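seq:
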Amino acid sequence: MPRILIVDDESDFIELVKFRLAKLGCEFLVANDGVHALSQARQFKPSLILLDILLPDLDGLSVCEILRRQPGTKKIPVIFMSALTGDVTKRSAAMHAEDFFTKPLDLNRLEKRISELLQLAATTK
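struct:
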């Protein structure tokens, strides 16, 4: 069963995403800050990470950079989610992630993109 790590500091947002993605048949892991996200990613090796950029202790861009430098986590697909919409943010996120979604999320498009990435990961194993 694929695991998705959802990293966001808004618990209501996490619950909404979990509810909408439940039909994908995934197990969900949750982290509310960057340090916990790194710990969860290292320990559980999720199939995919949904990562907010604005986090309380370590921002999502830094989390992604750290994950990309570590052999055990460098190939985990990352989708950034953020209320930030500036070109700089999107460009910097694109350097490290498979996709970027602006909040409020288009949950139908997110579900489709996650399905694509999970299928790709399953065929490249």
